[in-house]
Amino acid sequence: MIFHVTHTTRYIYETAVSHGLNEARLTPRRFPGQEVRETALRVHPKPAFMHQRKDYYGNDVTAFEVLEKHDRLEATAESTVEVTSELTGPLPSISWEEARKLIAAESDPAFIEASEFIHNSPYVPAAPQLNDYARKTFAPERPLLECVQDLSHRIHEDFKYRPKSTSIDVALTDVLRKRQGVCQDFAHVMIGALRSVRLAARYVSGYVRPGPKVQGAQASHAWVAVFVPGNGWWSFDPTNDVMVSDSHVTLAWGRDYGDVAPVKGITLGGGGQTVEVEVYVRPL
């Protein structure tokens, strides 16, 4: 599948900002299965400088500084991306217990990298409720990916998707209690449940192909990748109860939302602010 994606983030400030320093993670990642044909980022007002770099997780980051006085800031990313599905053949049969043991014991670089994603993170702290929720899925000797599919399905069935029902600062325990939220919340719940049994899970930001029954389309989307020893990372979208394939465009990944926020920064002045986000995903 080939997609054209336009993503605009707009900040409207109560009072003028005299100096703003920001960074954007709006450039889709390049990896086997995803080719970025074109990508560009436009910022208004025009920044005094823009600098490209890679962050700790290998995501593309654009840092920019606006020195002129402004009461609104707009960053628009346009990308054309080709995604191919790599879901072929039977699912790996390794059990979740064996996967957990290998992640803890192996010294191969891929396992060491994966082991960083078994720990708590700012938006996914440890909570007994997460382990309680996971326990129903992780039966002894059950295949890992069967467990992950079941967990994704349960979250899809147990939680109601309600746009604008939460903010990113809502505690994960509140999401568990209210059983409602948006894709970022569901990804955090799934990651927390996986980590509660010491499995490696990371947060993935991006976009999903729009469709009549697709939730989270035409907006920033989020899902989960789990590490399968010997078979790399496998991704699941609990919001839509699907295994991720060529209908998803990946922007960035990290421990949780805080590592991959599309735009964030600091300002001198500005007072309160309103944030508007517009996303358009178009299959070509």
Q: Looking at CATH, which topology of the largest domain would you report?
A: C8orf32 fold
Average predicted confidence as pLDDT: 95
What's the architecture of the largest domain in CATH terms? Answer: Roll
N-to-C series of helices and strands: EEEEEHHHHEHEHEEEEEHEE
> Quick one: overall form?
globular
Tally of helical segments: 7
Question: What can be said about the biggest beta sheet?
Answer: 7 strands, antiparallel
Q: Which class of the largest domain in CATH terms? A: Alpha Beta
Structural class: alpha+beta
End-to-end separation in angstroms reads 8 Å
* Number of distinct beta strands: 14
Strand content: 35-45%
Portion in helices: 10-25%
Unreliably modeled segments? none
Q: How big is the Rg?
A: 19 Å
Could you give a short description of this structure?
The chain contains seven helices and 14 strands. It has 284 residues and is an alpha+beta fold. The chain folds into two domains: 2-84 and 261-283, Sandwich (Immunoglobulin-like); 96-244, C8orf32 fold.
